[in-house]
Amino acid sequence: MITEDSISDHPEKQSIPEEISTKNITEKPTQVLEENTVDLSEAEVATEKPGMTAEITSSETEAPSEKLEAEVLQEQPEHQADVDTQKSVEIPAEKVLSEIDPAKAEYGEPNGEAHHDLELEYTTNLTLPEILKEMENIVNKDDAGAHFRKFNHFKEQANHFIHDEIEDQKSEFVNAGNSEDDFNAHHPAQTKLSALIHLFREKNEEYSKKQEENHSKNLEDRQLIIEKLKNLYTNTAVGTNLFKAIRTIKEDWKNAGQVAKSEFKILNNNYFHHLNQFYEMLDMNKEYMEQEYAHNLEKRQHIIDRARVLEGEPAVQKALNELQYLHKLWKEEAEPVAEEFREKTWDEFKEISNRIHDRKGELSAQIDEEQALNLEKKTKIIEEIKKICTPEKEANHNYWQNSIKKIEALRTEFLKLGSVPRKVSNQNWNDFKQNLRNFNTKKNEFYKGLKNSQQTNLDQKLKLIATAKDNMLSEDWEIIVPLFKKLQDEWKTVGHVPRSMTNKVWDDFREACNTFFNNYREKNNAVNDNWKENYKNKKQLLDELKEITDEEGSVEKIEHIKTNWNNIGKVPREKLAINTEFNKTLREKLKLNKISEYSLKEEGLTENQLTDKARKIKNQIGDLEAEIVKMENNLGFFKNSNRDNPLLKDTFDRIEGKKSELESLKQTLHTILSGEN
After folding, report:
1. What is the pLDDT of residues 3-35, one digit of tens each?
2. Is the CB of residue 607 less than 8 Å from the CB of residue 600?
3. Is 599 exposed, middle or buried (0-12, 13-18, 19+ CB in 10 A)?
4. What sign does the CA torsion over 626, 627, 632, 633 have?
5. How far apart are CA 236 and CA 285, in angstroms?
6. Cα gap 669→677, rounded to integer Å
7. Selection from 356, 364, 318 nearest residue 37 by Cα
8. Distances 248 to 239, 241, 288 between C-alpha atoms, Å
9. 337 close to 296: Cβ distance less than 8 angstroms
10. Average pLDDT of span 469-498
11. What is the secondary structure of 510-526 as a DSSP string?
């Protein structure tokens, strides 16, 4: 039962005051929506007809339904007789009904629609992990069973989330080209939800058992209180302070715990029957009644003062909830009062209550404004999701990965926003879910296509690897070096391959390339060493040639040196000047020894024709002929060595180029030897 103690911040530590205080009313908690709400239905409206009883317990206190009938608050509860020093006065219920606007008599909560919207706003502000956390908090409470409805509400919300997410997974699974029958519905949060439900069921059973025990004990306590009340007016001891005694009995009754509903009605009727009998006994006790009236009048005044404060309360819902609580106090703890103050105080309290209820329009306007703002924000989120689904440029992997993060952030923001107007709520939610599905469909289509293109890329790279492995041990540097460079260039142009194969194909290709180029460097270094040795030998021959004079036998020495010189191979590029120096020295020594024209022709070396240019061209012709023969021989190592093979196209072009160059050099040499310009 909600009592005056509920006004304080710490009701469990608050003593029962003799008189209601302004301080206590001011400190009333705001959490009355869940704990202190009283359903003012017609069955619980107090009337002034003697002999009637009202069943008002905290166990029967529920939020009003969505379609509350007009409720009427009477001035005097049905359980109290109108006691006066002269006679009992009955105020007809019709009179009270005519004095209160039924549309303003729904004290406590806004109309059903507003309540539904507030509840919707509360639940939609929570994500699935937050809902599970709330359920876990309830399960961890000692009185978990007392939150049965709240737990069931969260359970329904969690099931709703899980169902939607499983449907999304199923949609993605089917869009990826899989069969719907192969889909295995599983959600990671389902296990935790099932565990919480199981734990709550156990705690609820335990709570119900304790409640039954408490109800049984409370029944005994209340029966003892009734017995004390009965003895108070049937067997009063001499010197008993009736005022103090009845006050104690009423406080004890108010503070007694709940009993089973099946027991409460009879128990409650018995209590108020004996209470009425007590008041009838005191009907002639004017002094006591004056004290009782004064005490109740003071309580009424405190309630009225607090109601005036609520008129300026900025939170309309809070004001309505607390006003409902004040009406409960009025019925239970501010009756009766003297005749001259009865209607006056009630009219004053009623007028203040009606003014507070006039502010329901403000609450509805606030809710409408908030819902309109939420609708605007949610619509923008939906439009942004649509925009992400239709990129201006061709989307790549990075775009979709970044979009996944953006969509998740937008989804979280959408779910945290409050409710929207009911008439567009379903459409707004369906638009949101549909656009999420559209995003997932397009994302899956992209990755399905990417998977196919990656397989094509893998096939291309495997062909490049096969070619590289076939030629990695070849020493035909003129052909294979350009070939490997071409393979590397083509590798760079091929796109991504499946992630599982990325490292493997790259390692295989790199190994083949490294093997070839390592061999190439080793061989090249050996050739360079040979060329250096050739330079040393030619330098020695050049020095010998310079020492020759015109003495007898010099011609033979010159011929010997010339023959040895021609038998020595190439020298490093930076040492090519030694060839020019040798030719110049050779001509000088021939002139010195006056070798005849005929003798030179016998050797194919006339003085005029033996120029640096002619000798260089001869060397180039010999090199080109050797290269062409070698390249044509190497083509025979390929299975497909025709011009249609794209890997050999460059080689054929180079062979043709070298042949053209060879013909040109031969023509030039012929011109020099024939004495033409």
Report:
1. 333 333 333 333 333 332 333 333 333 333 333
2. yes
3. middle
4. positive
5. 14
6. 11
7. 318
8. 16, 11, 15
9. yes
10. 85
11. HHHHHHHHHHHHHHHHH
Pair 250, 1: CB distance under 8 Å: no
Is residue 498 helix, strand or coil? Answer: coil
Two tokens at 595?
A: 């070798």
Whether the Cβ atoms of residue 590 and residue 562 lie closer than 8 Å to each other: no
Q: Give CA–CA dist 527/600, Å, rounded.
A: 34
Q: CA separation (Å) from 294 to 25, 49, 91, 337, 343?
A: 19, 23, 20, 7, 15
Q: CB of 431 within 8 A of CB of 382?
A: yes
Secondary structure percentages of the chain, helix, strand, coil, to 5: 75, 0, 25
> CA-CA distance, 203 to 225, in Å (whole number)?
32
Q: What whole-number distance in Å separates Cα of residue 611 and Cα of residue 582?
A: 11
Q: Is the dihedral of CA 212, 216, 221, 226 positive or negative?
A: positive
Mean pLDDT, residues 156-170 taken together:
87
Counting other chains too, the contacts that 162-170 makes at CB distance below 8 Å and 24 or more residues apart are 162/128, 162/187, 162/189, 162/190, 162/193, 164/433, 165/128, 168/436, 168/437, 168/440
Residue bearing tokens 């409710």: 419
How remote is the C-alpha of 635 from its chain's centroid?
61
| Cβ count near 495 (within 10 Å) | 12
Interval 356-378: pLDDT, tens: 888 887 778 888 888 899 999 99
28 DSSP assignment:
-
User: Is 50 exceeded by the pLDDT of residue 665?
Assistant: yes
Domain spans, the chain: 365-471, 472-595, 611-677
What tokens does 287 get? 């002094």
Report how far residue 370's alpha carbon sits from residue 364's, in angstroms, rounded to the nearest whole number: 10
Helix (H, G, I), strand (E, B) or coil at 91: coil
Q: Which amino acid is at 273?
A: H
Burial class of residue 274, CB neighbours in 10 A (0-12, 13-18, 19+): buried
Band (pLDDT 50/70/90 cuts) for residue 349 is: very high
- Residue 486: Cβ within 10 Å count: 17
Tokens of 39: 């359903």
